[in-house]
Design a protein that fits this description.
By secondary structure, the chain is mainly alpha-helical. The protein has seven helices and three strands, in the order αααβααββαα. Strands 1-3-2 form a three-stranded antiparallel β-sheet. A hairpin with a 7-residue loop joins strand 2 and strand 3.
Length: 167
């Protein structure tokens, strides 16, 4: 059932009160549940902005990554590393982007085992429109000023680093 409007209370805060009464300290549960809810909010905003461009967030990220590369192409292995995805997922993303004419595969010039993925002019154009759409909705990250966004990034980065996401 879709929510029709804002609730008159914060259900996560209420759940935290009940957790504290029945189970114990609730600060971790409250924080994690809030992060999960915000993830839903952000995904909904980003998916809504990307849908008219026939892109998912994963395919959008791949196009952004390719556009950032000096030669606008990368080996699939590098794409997987940078996007932090399993090779099968990268293959699926590239297959869909290639079917839409947004990328092309080319042989690696020095490694016969590797394949390069290159963004096409149509991919660049689609990326430009999609980027305009996601930035217009601020990627769904509403209610925060620039300082808040920096603090949030730093806090989430500490969790990611402690979990082994990066050094």
């Amino acid at each position: 059932m879709a929510q029709q409007g804002p609730l008159p209370f914060d259900p996560i805060d209420r759940a935290a009160e009940l957790w504290a009464e029945r189970i114990g300290p609730s600060s971790t549960m409250r924080a994690v549940t809030s992060v999960m809810r915000v993830q839903q909010i952000l995904l909904s905003a980003v998916d809504g902005a990307l849908k008219p461009h026939n892109l998912t967030f994963a395919r959008y990220e791949a196009l952004v990554l390719l556009s950032f590369a000096r030669a606008r192409k990368l080996p699939m292995r590098v794409m997987g590393e940078r996007l932090q995805l399993h090779p099968t997922s990268v293959t699926n993303i590239v297959d869909r982007l290639q079917a839409d004419g947004l990328v092309r595969r080319t042989p690696h010039p020095t490694d016969r085992r590797a394949t390069l993925v290159e963004i096409t002019p149509d991919g660049v154009a689609r990326l430009e429109g999609a980027t305009k759409s996601v930035t217009e909705v601020d990627f769904g990250l509403v209610g925060l000023d620039e300082g808040d966004k920096t603090v949030l990034f730093d806090l989430l980065g500490r969790i990611r680093s402690a979990s082994g996401d990066f050094h």
